Amino acid sequence: MLLHNQGEKINQKSLIISGFLAVFFLIFSLLLWIYLKELSIVFITAALFFLITFIQLEAYYRNQKVSLQQNDQLFKLLELKSQADNHYRQIEALFSIFNLLTLRQPLPPMRGWAVSPDFVKLIISSVFEHKPKLVVELGSGVSTLVVGYCLQTLNQGEVISVDHEESYTEISKNNVLNHSLQNVVQVIYAPLKNITIYDKTWLWYDPGFLTNLEKPIDLLIVDGPPGDLQKLSRYPALPLLIDSLSDDALVLLDDSNREDEQEIVKLWKQSFPFSKVEQIVTEKGACVLRLSKK
Which residues of 246-282 are buried (b: 16+ CB within 10 A; e: fewer)? Predict the structure, then answer.
């Protein structure tokens, strides 16, 4: 911004000088014509006028180009710094994860389509702080294993993870077995079905899994279905699960930097009672919502 302002000052100064010289030489040429009647002098003066104007315009465009190049370089530097800061936060979160959990096997890759380490760190903090007896997770993966490890450490609770892709459901089930978490983790295949909410049809998980719930959900992790499936893809979670949530259940929504997720939070706030709604700075954005049914 500073470089841009300096470039603007130089360009404004060049234009002022060009304008002043133009007016001066025009007046000077007229005076020469009136009093001396010398056409050669008028032509020379006019030539000087156009030459000086050309020089000033050339200086203006050169400074403009330099200013734009400097702004581009500054923008790239700021972008690199932002990326470096984010990478540092993810590494810092990984250290926290490995320090808090005793893993039996390596965790699957994070980031990209999978959850980022800083969101995993938020999940761990939420489980240890609120000690949920039942966790329901929409979208299985790394977080499924992490929640399982947390519940084993607390020696209480269980997690039901729902996935709409059969092949990925099998991968998650195998990961659960490899990490010896089957006593606290259940992965359920729930294909997407058309479900009507408020006279509108949505694609969402087959709600049949709800019939197996024997206790209220204390922690709901919303990381599915995929955002590109439909507009406001994850909105149905609260309307369909609200009766299955405990009075003060905690809801974690991933990817809240996206416009759809921000709109979903607004719609949820309009329809359901919350004692807490907090946006958390993570790589993809996270929102923490605390229900208050009482």
Answer: beebbbbbbbbeeebbeebbeebeeebebeeeeeeeb
